[in-house]
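We emphasize that the prediction below concerns an isolated chain of 321 residues; any contacts that depend on oligomerization or on bound cofactors are therefore not represented. The input was used exactly as deposited, without trimming of termini.
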Amino acid sequence: MSEGPVRKPAQKVIRPRVGNERGVFRMGTSQIKRVGLGRWYWGDIYHWMLTLSWPRFFLLVGGLYMVTNVGFALAFFLVPGSVSNARPGSFLDTFFFSIETLATVGYGYMNPGSTYGHVVASTEILLGMVEVATVTGLLFARFSRPTSRIMFSDVAVITPFNGVPTLMLRTGNERGNLILEASVRATLIRREMTLEGQIFTRFYDLQLERERSGVFALTWTILHKIDESSPFWGKSQEDLQKEGATLSVAVSGTDDTLNDFVHARQTYAAEHIFFNHHFADIMSDKQDGNVRILDYSKFHDIYPDGTTGGSMPGAALAHPG
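Result of the prediction step, given as a token string:
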């Protein structure tokens, strides 16, 4: 009886992320906190607001809206007579008048009742126009920013391929479009000790079986042959863990729908690289009419080498298409 697929290997596979903690750069399982930098630069606020998640972005916009209106409502409230027809001592009336002024709505029931009121209202209108223009620009920039839906396998494997030990990992295009002039780069990052006894972080660009493709439509199995020139040569998983090794992979190309550059990246720590395993075949021989089935539910499945379950090494799509 064949062994079943390893949907999620014995230990939980954690997909590494970058920048999910303030001030910490995360790659694989390594976390690096940067200190000693110069003071925060105010011009980075635009970049920061573009990288916020949508819930946090709208929470920030809503908070700014409330703070602005409460601030100007207090300015009107603290000077009686600033707002005509507002109920005496009613902060709620000045708050709603601030909202109407900020939005330049002006329902006509309440209006500035003094020179001071006109000055505050004019200031709020100017600030409101600036805030609306800023938020509109940020919304447009966030919506118009090109994004990719490129998925990566949860793990990478090392298995014989045409008689040569080969590092393999999968990428897939989750959208129904094409990525033109696609390219992939893979880098091994590890710590080494120099002859002088210093710990040094080295970056090794991996030679891939195929680094470019005119069209990336479905899946792409990325292959790196492990020979004497490979930084993986003679290494075991324990060696990679001792060296704090991390495999970084980046895929980029031009989205044919957006006609713009898109990219995606993923990192694999040493524990995410499985020796003597291979990926399951996701291309089914069964046909639905004249259409072959590409089963993404098996995209992350791996099998130990020598088992009959799944595909043998390299049976999955080795090139994009």
